[in-house]
Amino acid sequence: MFSGLRSTMQAVFTPLAKALMRLGVTPDAVTVAGTVVVTALALGLLPTGHLFLGAALIGFFALFDSLDGVLARLSGRSGPWGAFLDSTLDRVSDGAVFAGITLWFVLHPQVPHQQWGVAASLACLVLGGVVPYARARAESVGADAHVGIAERTDRLVIALVPLGFVQLGLPVVVLVVVLTLLAAASLVTVAQRIGTVRRQLAPGAADPTGDATGDAAGEASRGA
């Protein structure tokens, strides 16, 4: 849904990436710093009820997700290591966001639909880890699972927008319903990826990637 924003942000970040490169900042440093900041914001602000500030700041720093990739390409450091580090740390920051939402529900039992909210946010936390795992595991066996209705950016935006506005008066039930639908969309995405890989790997099916080694190398860049 929001994947088209990536190319726009890459163009916007090019001047900043060039400045960081002149300062000697590495893509790995940007990746690690972004993860630390988002994780700290998610676990520090969301459970304590600073929902609007937390959602706004997390959303702001999430926009910088493409910066390390732009810096890596400009500095000639794109490669499998950067892709691995970026993807792994994305799981940390995503998990922290949904853990923070879950903790807010747990620590505020007086909010309406609290138990439903805990269950929905936990489902988003678990399934949010399965969605990228299914794609990565598919690529490891020579298949392509780049399908689905709930990719990473979509999940974050859909969760953070109603979360932030709850503090401004949005009924909590809206957030809970959104989280429930998001969990359902993530489950559908997992099913879509399983079905896609099953068809590709069925006996007699054509090679889904053509040259699995070449495609894997092509995907091995930050932000892929």
Automatic annotation (TrEMBL):
Major subcellular location class: membrane
Gene3D superfamilies reported in the protein's UniProt record = 1.20.120.1760
Give the reactions, separated by semicolons, that this protein catalyses. a CDP-1,2-diacyl-sn-glycerol + 1D-myo-inositol 3-phosphate = a 1,2-diacyl-sn-glycero-3-phospho-(1D-myo-inositol-3-phosphate) + CMP + H(+); 1,2-di-(9Z-octadecenoyl)-sn-glycero-3-cytidine-5'-diphosphate + 1D-myo-inositol 3-phosphate = 1,2-di-(9Z-octadecenoyl)-sn-glycero-3-phospho-(1D-myo-inositol-3-phosphate) + CMP + H(+)
| E.C. number(s) listed in UniProt | 2.7.8.-
What subcellular locations does the record give? Cell membrane
Q: Which Pfam families match?
A: CDP-OH_P_transf
User: PROSITE patterns, per this entry?
Assistant: CDP_ALCOHOL_P_TRANSF
Residues the entry annotates as binding Mg(2+) 2: 65, 86, 90
Membrane association type: Multi-pass membrane protein
Please describe what this protein does.
Answer: Catalyzes the conjugation of the 1'-hydroxyl group of D-myo-inositol-3-phosphate (also named L-myo-inositol-1-phosphate) with a lipid tail of cytidine diphosphate diacylglycerol (CDP-DAG), forming phosphatidylinositol phosphate (PIP) and CMP. PIP is a precursor of phosphatidylinositol (PI) which is an essential lipid required for cell wall formation.
Q: Where is the composition biased (Low complexity)?
A: 202-218
Co-factor remark: Contains a di-nuclear catalytic Mg(2+) center.
Which residues are listed as membrane-spanning?
Answer: 51-71, 156-184
Q: Which cofactor does it need?
A: Mg(2+)
Specify the pathway: Phospholipid metabolism; phosphatidylinositol phosphate biosynthesis; Lipid metabolism
Uppermost EC category: transferase
Question: Per the record, what is one GO cellular component?
Answer: plasma membrane
Mind listing the UniProt keywords for this protein, alphabetically? Cell membrane, Lipid biosynthesis, Lipid metabolism, Magnesium, Membrane, Metal-binding, Phospholipid biosynthesis, Phospholipid metabolism, Transferase, Transmembrane, Transmembrane helix
Task: Using the UniProt annotation, give all residue ranges assigned to the region (Disordered).
Answer: 202-224
- Name of the protein described by the UniProt record: Phosphatidylinositol phosphate synthase
Query: Which residues constitute the catalytic centre?
Result: 90
Matching entries from InterPro entries are given as:
CDP-OH_P_trans, CDP-OH_PTrfase_TM_dom, CDP_ALCOHOL_P_TRANSF_CS, PIP_synthase_PgsA1
Top-level division of the source organism's lineage: Bacteria
